[in-house]
Write a structure and sequence with these properties.
Elements (H helix, E strand, L loop, with lengths): L9 H17 L6 E5 L5 E6 L2 H4 L6 H9 L9 E4 L5 H10 L3 E4 L9 H6 L3 E4 L3 H13 L1 H8 L3
Parallel strand pairs: 3-4, 4-5
Antiparallel strand pairs: 1-2, 1-3
């Protein structure tokens, strides 16, 4: 396989996570989506925040994608793509299972643990997507209490 001859299309990968975020919003939930890809750019699993829909505070976008990806022998060559910088909980998941790379849609709405992940030697790429930013910023404006609940703020 000649997978390293062409760079992975980060924008196309992020588009999968954005579609998940939009699905979550359509379901009445927080618009944060995630997708996990292998080193060749093949989708392994995707998901979105389902806190509101399922009444489950553990179902963030990254954890939903992680669950949907199923068991893996190793996560070293997998890429976590998320519309928003991962919170401490999801950053811990990335660290615990040894993902080698995280692609972040944006971190203006929420800084998360991106700098911590970088300090551990995990590659973090911030695409600074206006679409990701607007999608969540609009939701936060309209639903501040739900947002604060999601990030653990009083």
């Amino acid at each position: 396989m000649h997978t390293m001859n062409h760079p992975l299309d980060h924008s196309a990968m992020l588009a999968v996570a954005i579609a998940e975020a939009r699905q979550g919003l359509a379901e009445g939930g927080i618009p944060i989506g995630a997708a996990i890809f292998d080193a060749s750019g093949n989708l392994v699993g995707s998901g979105h925040n389902r806190r509101v829909q399922n009444g489950d505070p553990s179902l963030h976008g990254e954890t939903d994608a992680f669950r949907n990806a199923g068991r893996q022998r190793s996560y070293r060559n997998l890429i976590m793509v998320t519309t928003l910088a991962p919170c401490w909980y999801c950053s811990g998941l990335v660290r615990q299972f040894g993902f080698g790379k995280v692609i972040v849609g944006e971190r203006r709405n929420f800084q998360g643990g991106a700098d911590w992940l970088r300090s551990l030697g995990i590659e973090v790429i911030d695409l600074n997507s206006a679409e990701c930013f607007e999608l969540l910023a609009n939701y936060i404006r309209e639903n501040p209490a739900v947002w604060n609940e999601d990030i653990g703020e009083e």
